[in-house]
Design a protein that fits this description.
Elements (H helix, E strand, L loop, with lengths): L5 H21 L1 H5 L2 H9 L13 H20 L4 H28 L22 H42 L1
Length: 173
Amino acid sequence: MAIITAPGIIRALSLFHLSVAYFLIASPSTIVNQSLVFILGASMRLPTPPSLSDASPSTAFSALILALLGLTDLAACSLPEETSSYYWGSQAPIRCTFFFALTGYAYAFKPEGPVRGVSRQGNPWDNLHTSVVFTWSFLEMISWFWIFITLREERRELAVRQAERKRVEENML
């Protein structure tokens, strides 16, 4: 059995989403000035977004999306164990793959990136090449991979318990 269960990791990630949502509304510059964002952004040579220095409608909208994500994930953690196993078993690989692609895109297609090629000026996707987007997607990717691995272990244990319960029921008949 894992030391930290998948629902525990999901709850922690949901609280992380709610915390980031709060800081996006109250003080977006706090997120930009975090040492982890600075270290990962500098090591990947990604720019710091100047638009996050003050609260704006876009940061408020992003905060609402993150708050919704955090609250719905917290609510989904309260599902029964068997239902939760199937639900998170389908969510974890999708989210892990999405954040893997976003992390790779933020790094590989940056202006000095290895796959940049010919680009046109004013591409709206260029706004994703920042230290904040990279750090957030990288942390999400790691978290969802950890959840996926933990769910696989828990699914094995759940199958053993169900087989044991079935065997006991058959012996009672």
